[in-house]
Structure formats: structure tokens, C-alpha cells
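quick q for whoever's on today - can somebody do inverse folding on this one?? i tried earlier but teh output was garbage lol. C-alpha cells:
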């Protein structure tokens, strides 16, 4: 949910920039809605909670049917724009071979495809400066994921950080990120225990605050998760780690000015070694110059 929302941010940012004075209504899952809080041109934000019987589309239609839209864009492929009055309509369709943010751009005729962005406000940036003050470089570690098989072992995250702090980023500090809730806290606990001096940001931030904090880091290393996509969108060098459904991986590869990942086949995150991750980190750091 969060990753999909991040992948939509680039085209929205470009559309607003090329339409001064535009008033934008965004519909997004509740878990991702905060990402759009500081989007330029935002007029209304509608949180849409998905339902198994698909009734959420009917509820969204009821929210928007009374408006005459200049532009209706559906990046989920539901066909909703055809059920409202709109001067122009764009409905996403599968585009094999293109990454998700590139598909969005192709749908709207944007070339080259604008990279995802992360919007923040002054309050979020001020809090990030307090949590991650100027000083030695900070490495963001994102050890959680939506399900356990997507999580790289905590001891390898810790070993990777120690290597980076001793060589590529001398004297670096660790910051551990994670979402709200007991499951995220439980998933991050082994890494926090292994790195007792780390900055603990698990469950402590809104999504714009997450983006502001990640933007102050020198490097982010993350399992395939929403945090990975937010980090890449901020422009910080970002390495993603993934070892499941490799046939689908190209579509959701992290997109940023210095982003990449270590991808393995076989659905086993243990197949990714610390050496592999260290090499990947050096590559994205080199990309950032």
C-alpha cells in the first residue's frame, strides 16, 4: 500500500507543477494517506479502506460523483473514472516490462518518467533535525516487512552496519526504522538488541516524519517494504533486499536517484549474504557521488 502510493508520487508532483492553481483530490489507503499531507495543490484527501467485497469502490464513488472533474486518474485499474463526469480520464492498464512508476508516467504521456518524491513540511523537518542531528553519518536500517519471509536476518543487518561504520562510512551511527504496532516492534527488537546504541525510531513517526528523517541519513538499507520506497524517494542512497517472487521484482524495484537492490531467487532471505549487501551499499553510495 505504502509502496504503491510512493510510486504514484512522481507523476502527481509533475502534474501539479505543470498546472498552477490546480486543486487535487487524492484517494489512498488509510495506511498511506499521510504521504500526501504536504503534496502541493492538495485540496482533499480521502482515506479508502479496502474491503473484501470491493464495496470500497462504491463508497469512493459516492464521495466523488457529485464533482465535475477536469482530470480523473485511476492508478489501480478499477475503472472508476468512467462512472463520474470528467473532461479527461486515465485508467491504468498492465504494461509489461515497465517499472510501476514508469507505467504511471506512460499512462499520462510523461517522458522521461518522473521519479517518486517524498513531501514533508517544516514541522517534520524540524523534528527530524532533532532526532537525527548534524554530526557523524547515520545509516537507516529497516528490518521489518509485511510478513516474516521478507525479513533479512537481524544479525546480518547488524554485521553489515558494523562493516559500513568501520570503512565506507567511518564512525556512522545506526537508526532503526519500523512502523507502528506490536508486530513491527517485535520484528525490530532483535536488531535493536544487537545495536544498543542505535536511534530507535520504530513506531515513533508519522510518514512525513519518516521521510524527513530518512532524508537526513547517509544510507538506507531495507527489506522490500514501504520504508524502502520512501527512502528511495527522498534521494538518500537506498539498498533494498529481496528474495521472493523474482519474476515480479522488476516492477517494484526501488526508484530514486541512487537506489538499487540485492535480489535473490528461491524465497529465502538467508540467501543474501553480508558481502552481497555490502557490495550493494557501495554501489548506491557511488551512484550518489
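ok took a stab at it. sequence:
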Amino acid at each position: 500500500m505504502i509502496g504503491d502510493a510512493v510510486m504514484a508520487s512522481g507523476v502527481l508532483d509533475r502534474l501539479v507543477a505543470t498546472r498552477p492553481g490546480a486543486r487535487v483530490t487524492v484517494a489512498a489507503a488509510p495506511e498511506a494517506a499521510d504521504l500526501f499531507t504536504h503534496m502541493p495543490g492538495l485540496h482533499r484527501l480521502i482515506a479508502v479502506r479496502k474491503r473484501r467485497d470491493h464495496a470500497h469502490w462504491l463508497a469512493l464513488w459516492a464521495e466523488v460523483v457529485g464533482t465535475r472533474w477536469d482530470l480523473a486518474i485511476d492508478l489501480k485499474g478499477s475503472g472508476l473514472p468512467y462512472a463520474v463526469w470528467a473532461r479527461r480520464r486515465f485508467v491504468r492498464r498492465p504494461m509489461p516490462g515497465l517499472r510501476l512508476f514508469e507505467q504511471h508516467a506512460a499512462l499520462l504521456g510523461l517522458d522521461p518518467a518522473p521519479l517518486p518524491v517524498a513531501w514533508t513540511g517544516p514541522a517534520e523537518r524540524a523534528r527530524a533535525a532533532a532526532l537525527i542531528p548534524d554530526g557523524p553519518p547515520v545509516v537507516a536500517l529497516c528490518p521489518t516487512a509485511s510478513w516474516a519471509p521478507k525479513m533479512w536476518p537481524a544479525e546480518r543487518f547488524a554485521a553489515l552496519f558494523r562493516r559500513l561504520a568501520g570503512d565506507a562510512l567511518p564512525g556512522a551511527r545506526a537508526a532503526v526504522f519500523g512502523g507502528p504496532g506490536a508486530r513491527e516492534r517485535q520484528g525490530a527488537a532483535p536488531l535493536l538488541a544487537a545495536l544498543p546504541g542505535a536511534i530507535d525510531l520504530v513506531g515513533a513517526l508519522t510518514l512525513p516524519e519518516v521521510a524527513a528523517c530518512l532524508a537526513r541519513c547517509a544510507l538506507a538499507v531495507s527489506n522490500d517494504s514501504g520504508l524502502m520506497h520512501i527512502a528511495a524517494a527522498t534521494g538518500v542512497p537506498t539498498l533494498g533486499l529481496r528474495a521472493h517472487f523474482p519474476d515480479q521484482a522488476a516492477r517494484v524495484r526501488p526508484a530514486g536517484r541512487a537506489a538499487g537492490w540485492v535480489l535473490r531467487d528461491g524465497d529465502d532471505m538467508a540467501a543474501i549474504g553480508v558481502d552481497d549487501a555490502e557490495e550493494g551499499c557501495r554501489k548506491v553510495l557511488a551512484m550518489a557521488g
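fwiw The mean pLDDT is 95. also The chain has two domains: 2-108, 122-287. so keep that in mind when u check it
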